[in-house]
Amino acid sequence: MRPVIVGICSAFFFAFTFVLNRLMELSGGSWIWSASLRYFFMVPFLLIIVMLRGNLGQLMQTMKEQTKSWLLWSLVGFGLFYAPICFAAAYEPGWLIAGTWQITIISGSLLVPFFKEQVQTSQGLQSVRGKIPFKGLSMSLVILLGIVLMQMEQAGTLSFSDVLLGVLPVLVASFAYPLGNRKMMELCGGRLDAYQRVLGMTLASLPFWIVLAVIGWFADGPPTAVQTFQSALVALSSGVIATVLFFYATDLVRGNMQQLAAVEATQSAEVLFAAMGEIWLLSLPMPSALSWLGMALIMVGMILHSYVSRVKKRSSLQKANIS
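The line above is the sequence of Multidrug resistance efflux transporter family protein; the predicted structure tokens follow.
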């Protein structure tokens, strides 16, 4: 239960990303600066934390051992996740992007066969390739239905191209984030804590953000003071607090892909938090009844997905004890 609660707390802080990115877009800020500035600001925050904990040397040594893998999977997990999310903010409201983002639950489940998990057998713990959790995936279809309902509602007010440009980047991000996160978990093998892992991935993804910032400088000029301040808030709330909480929750269930999918399912709460934030901060009109129904389905899907995952884990443990 604790990993799920931690996951929901991370969803609250993650929701600031969608609200503030939309605010920056409506204020005329470039999505490129919204994306890159967040990671630039994350570095000093995380460096201070890791240095105070006395763990910086261990992180540097671990990164040095497998530099290419750190660069690759940090690019996937952070770069190909956040840049598309910021790009989508130029075309759809933040709460709608947050809702569409929940397709990552399905994406994460589809990635299970690409990883191995620890399974208790009569010969002890063994590493076996994971199988797609079809029961949990069927519950995730409820979430997908909620996303469809929300997008249908917006289709009447947004152009087809705006809907497409708001959905496709989020779809890319929905696969990139769990893929990069899980690959880094495998790479670290439990040697690093959540703070070290987030700092390491942030540092390893900096080449991508520097290139993106250079493009932004020549295309749109330097960021405004307001966007810089707002990006710092995103870096602290979402980039540091939320990411560390989420990675901590996934570390608690490391090696169990079904439970890992349940933790990822908690991120569905982002849509509710984001909607409340935009109504309060941006004075947006209340979403329609159809959109609220879509949000409700997403939340219900999250609960069902977590329940099915817990039942499966309990059944697996009982079989292992019998053996």
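Note on the example: The radius of gyration is 19 Å. The first helix runs from residue 2 to 26.
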